[in-house]
Amino acid sequence: MESLDFIAGLTHFDFAVGDLLNADQAMALAIQCAYNGAPFVSPNPAVGCVILNAQGKLLAKGHHEFFGGPHAEVNALKNLSHEDLKSAQVFVTLEPCAHEGKTPSCAKALAQLPIAKVVFGLVDPNPLVSGQGAEILRQAGIVVEEFEPRTKQQKKIKTELEEVCEVFLHNFRHKQVFTTIKMATSLDGQMALSNGQSQWITGSQARQHAHYLRSCYDALVVGRKTIENDDPQLNIRHPDVQKNNRIVILDPSGELDLQGKKVLSCHAAKDIFWCVQEGHPRHSQLQKQAEGLGVQLLTARPWSGPHKPTMNQNIFDLADLSSQLWSQGIRSLFIEGGATSIAHCLQQNFAQRLCLYVAPQILGQGLSWTKGFSLDDINHRIHLQNPKHQSLGSDIFWTGRLKNSHI
Ligand SMILES: NC(=O)c1ccc[n+]([C@@H]2O[C@H](COP(=O)([O-])OP(=O)(O)OC[C@H]3O[C@@H](n4cnc5c(N)ncnc54)[C@H](OP(=O)(O)O)[C@@H]3O)[C@@H](O)[C@H]2O)c1
Question: 312 in ligand 1 pocket by Cβ < 6 Å?
Fold first, then answer.
């Protein structure tokens, strides 16, 4: 099973039951476990759990495997007896839940056990849980601690705890969709040749990885020209993931002819959101067209930000569009291009993460992935926070949180 645990930037552990772990290793292993659920848990967080016995030996690990399924703690506990759990220590990436939802409360389940201690990575921002899960455990006489970062390594683990459930945290903290920009480029930063050719820039390993990453987001976003030029399928093609994703197409003028496009045959039409400008003069005609195809028509208002690029007056206010997608149950977006779509996203400071696959090739002047995006002050350059990279065949994958200060 492919996993994104390398994104955690921590040592990849291969601990076996019975191995002796310290607290930092246990929490880092819990993060690694959490990533295994990333494609399947939305809108829940990816959570991992590791249980050590009284001597610090690994008893079990688990993760939240799918939305509505047992939580990480329950999966880690499932083969352990009360005898095994005497004075055990539980490490879980997020505070155990206090409330009964689709599954029973994990805090209440843990409170029944003869465990000595629970260390949780982050306080759950959900008001139904926040602090209450910890309180249930304390009331049961269990020592409860939030993972406190004192050393450099622990600070790194704390950052990784935030990142493993970044979509969930962003959703709760800001009531907004979490957005990632993803693209494949040459060494000279080109996403396509000037004639539009772009398939394939990266090798098979990077492409398989990108499909896995795609599966971790609720919907994939592309601009009109990517559909016209590439006629992509935009589905998830990965041996470990069976999942349908949703597609958002940015087409303010409503000029795109979706009939016969692969995206229509590879997805349930209702999972395709065709986005056109608000107040479009042909709105009722476009609505009929959408109904005929079975796709959903959305309208978004124009962006009126301070750095509105001059190249296109029909630029969507992406925050407005995303709040409509939020109402449709979408909690995370994966913007796959092309360059114009990415430029608008950067301009509006809309994305939280960048995922970039760089191939060892030179394409010459073509379609630069920042085409249409420019800054007038070097102090406004966009930084990648907590950047990480990994080799995938001969390509290099870069990722990091976007820290944007130009607007
Ligand atoms: N290497 C890669 O990873 C990768 C990935 C995807 C695509 N590509 C390549 O990229 C090329 C296409 O890129 P592109 O930059 O020409 O076009 P694009 O981003 O695919 O589509 C641009 C069009 O989408 C609409 N659009 C995008 N963002 C919008 C926003 N915020 N608000 C309103 N409308 C928005 C606009 O339509 P209107 O013009 O109608 O206003 C815009 O002109 C293709 O050749 C494809 O092969 C490469």
Answer: yes
The model's pTM is: 0.94
In the chain, the percentage of residues whose pLDDT exceeds 70 is: 95
Q: How far is the CA of 211 from the centre of ligand 1 (A)?
A: 20
Q: Looking at the predicted structure, is the pLDDT value of residue 127 above 90?
A: no
Q: What is the largest CA-CA distance in the chain?
A: 71
Q: What SS3 state is found at 138? A: helix
**Residues 270 and 244 sit within 8 Å (Cβ to Cβ):** no
Q: Whose CA is nearest to atom 44 of ligand 1?
A: 226
SS3 for 391?
strand
pLDDT at 308 over 60: no
Between the CA of 182 and the centroid of ligand 1 the distance, in Å, is 13
Strands across the sheet with 395-403, in order?
A: 296-300, 272-277, 246-250, 219-223, 332-335, 178-185, 353-358, 395-403, 383-392
Query: Which residue's CA is minimally distant from atom 21 of ligand 1?
Result: 223
Q: Is 275 in the pocket of ligand 1 (CB under 6 A)?
A: no
Task: Ligand 1 pocket test: pick from 201, 211, 225, 342 the residue with the most ligand atoms within 8 Å of its Cβ.
Answer: 225
- Contact present, 332 and 214 (Cβ < 8 Å): no
Percent of the chain beyond pLDDT 90? 85
Q: Which residues are catalytic?
A: 73
Q: Is the minimum distance from the CB of 346 to ligand 1 under 6 angstroms?
A: no
CA of 343 relative to ligand 1 center, distance in Å? 9
The structure tokens listed for 353 are 């993460």
User: In angstroms, rounded to a whole number, what is the distance separating the alpha carbons of residues 73 and 47?
Assistant: 9
Would you say 87 and 70 are in contact if contact means Cβ atoms under 8 Å apart? Answer: no
Euclidean distance between CA atoms 10 and 120, whole angstroms: 18
CA distances in angstroms from 272 to 64, 182, 261, 275, 345, listed in the order given? 28, 19, 12, 10, 20
